[in-house]
Design a protein that fits this description.
The chain is an alpha+beta fold. The protein has 8 helices and 11 strands. The chain is rod-shaped. It is an enzyme of class 2 (transferase).
Length: about 300
Amino acid sequence: MPIIINDEVVGVYGVAKDITDRYLEQDELRKTKERLESFVRNNADAIWVIDLEERVLEINPAFETMFGWTKEEILGVHLYDLPFIPPEILADKRQAVEMDQQKPILGLETVRYRKDGAVLDVAFSKFPVYDAEGKMDGWSVILRDITEWKKSQLMLQNSEKLTVAGQLAAGIAHEIRNPITVIKGFIYLMKSGFGDKEEYFNIMSSECERIEQILTELLVLAKPHPSKVEPRDIRLIMMQTITLLHTQAIMNNVEIVTEFQQGVPVVYCDENQMKQVFINFMKNAIHERKRDRFRLYGE
């Protein structure tokens, strides 16, 4: 700036301020922003960001690939109008967001829709996003496609079920052969005209029900079905499992003894998976054969 004395410029002066630190901070912020943008842009998981008004601000290329909608179709859309969220989930999602907006969610298994109508199993994660002043500015959502992983897990479970069923086959064959032998014997007696036919019919009917029960338990064990957690009577599950292993225990000179107390509460579980647990436990106990009997308690 000029220095003026008596309307005459006699010199100039200037003021210099060291802004190196501010420049370095801005440069670091720029680099951090570029790193984050690169992370989002090149991430294999679908990532989308929404603001406090619950409208989509950004999606990454993986989102477009995974779900089939373009950025132009999704940006600006309100959370509850997003086409890839199943309608039945929206009510729960609205309640969860309103109850605790800042609480992160990590790896919640749920489902989403593709544009072509296909259903994807996904792991849902949500994190709050904060501005430079530390105030919450929105949410970042990550969706990982776990459809193939879920399929492989189901295949593995089904393979384990078939393996268990195969291991039980020999014992079950003996278990079925016994009532069949009884039925054949009574048919022979009826043909010969001996004994009380009504009594024979009652015994034969009982033996047929026994065969049906054994086959039903085997089919339930081997049949593929999705995991379903429901309230179950653990005593009933245990007794049904014993039906499958009864002959195997006898063949190994082992007696299975049960002792259940009154008022045993129901257990929330997957019945089929619980049966597999009991089968593995009982088979190990039978094969150990340290004693000629083992006792099962229910409290």
